[in-house]
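Anyone opening a protein record will find just a pair of labelled lines. A complete record is shown below as an example.
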Amino acid sequence: MPSDVQKPYDTITDFATGRKIPDIGTEPHRQKVEKYLYEQLGYPLSSMGVDVELTLEVAGEPYHTQLDIVLTVQDRPFMVIKCAAGSLDSREKEVITAARIMAEQLVPYAVASDGKTAVVYDAVNRKKIGEGLNQIPSYETAKKFLKTYVPAPILEDRREREKIIFKSYDSMNLNVQRNVQQKPRDDE
């Protein structure tokens, strides 16, 4: 197939943002997670950053990517969520390092989810702390937690190593919106 032929794709309306987005890859999983966060855990839609742009300098080169979902509570990043199919444990290093490098200070929680279940991590200590959607902290729990949470900065040499780890995992995400070079179907 010639490289200039574009394969059409369907679009859906993102639950959190209301934007039309390509219905590719793990998008159905993210839609389930967004609905669960809103309907079951009480997160306002305004707290959900979707496809959050992240630019890093890794080994002297810029690296551009997006994080699936970043929850912000009281104007502070609280949780990074990686939506995936298959083994959620295989996303551990990617989502934890994302939470550790996305801001100057450590984001406290990281989650990998397929919309049916989840693995929840303490990103500061890099430890698994729960399994199941019901283990994701609710919006009310997040507000209480942030009243006493003092974010720690990450040491620069450690941050550099973690950026390399993150990039090595993130660059394997092939079927994601940021890589779409196609166009929507004509009937859209």
